[in-house]
Amino acid sequence: MEKKDAKKEPFNRPDGVEVKLTAKSINIKGFLFFFILFLTGSYLFVYVWDEPSSYSAGRLLGTAVKGISSLQVMLCIFLLLVFYILIQAGILYWFSGKDKKLLHWHFDWTGVGFSLTRPIPLKFYRVSLLLPGILLGVMPAIHGFCTGEANIFFLGLFGILGGTGDFLFWYSLRAFDDEDLLLSSKKAFQATIIKRNYGKND
Predict the structure, then answer these.
(1) Is residue 116 within 8 Å of residue 91, measured between CB atoms?
(2) Dihedral over Cα of 121, 124, 128, 134: its sign
(3) In whole angstroms, how far apart are CA 186 and each of 54, 69, 104, 110, 140?
(4) CA distances (Å), 169 to each of 21, 47, 75, 190, in order?
(5) Which of 40, 150, 192, 197 is the right S-S partner for 16, CB 3.0 to 4.6 Å?
């Protein structure tokens, strides 16, 4: 069985290239991305809409959550997660030929959501990885930034942050051709790539 990386642990899948992201890798990169995203985002927002200073950036963060309880913040994050999963499941359902029996639910400490139990062209799987983060993260962040709405802007940043794992997995699949098939594992961020176009990858 061909290996994409010797460090990646094998699991029982059909012949192909095994791709796997570890929870440790995702958490470390996500933690770093959190600070970069929110610090740069805050300063950029302040630079455009307020007096550019460290004080203004700190005041912006405080104002964005002013009057919002921790329970409400948790509720917003939970709703973002639910909508994220539903959008991703809808995309996979559509590209699977609208057969809900092919959707497999997975829930563990590395991730939660749906995957397909049969191979899917990689070009469709890439859409399922990127589109939820764009709809719930990038677009609200751009809207909030352009209108000066701090709450919507930061909500969008949380949406982008929530899609970090999917973005990293999408990036790990960059070497493969769109027509190759991807068969998901029962665990998040694990899959087997079944090559159909060897000319681009070898």
Answers:
(1) no
(2) positive
(3) 45, 36, 8, 11, 31
(4) 7, 33, 27, 9
(5) 192
Q: Letter for the amino acid at 56?
A: S
Strand segments (E) across 9-119: 17-20, 103-108, 111-116
Give the pLDDT of residue 170.
93
Amino acid at 59: R
> How high is the pLDDT of residue 64?
53
Cα–Cα distance, 60 to 54 (Å, whole number): 10
Residue 86: pLDDT band by 50, 70, 90 thresholds?
Answer: very high
- Residue 143's pLDDT band (boundaries 50, 70, 90)? very high
Q: Which long-range contacts (CB under 8 A, 24 or more apart) does 6-12 make?
A: 11/185, 11/187, 11/190
Query: In the predicted model, what is the mean pLDDT of residues 125-154?
Result: 91
* Cβ–Cβ under 8 Å, residues 75 and 175: no
Comparing CA positions, the residue from 176, 194, 192 lying closest to residue 8 is 192
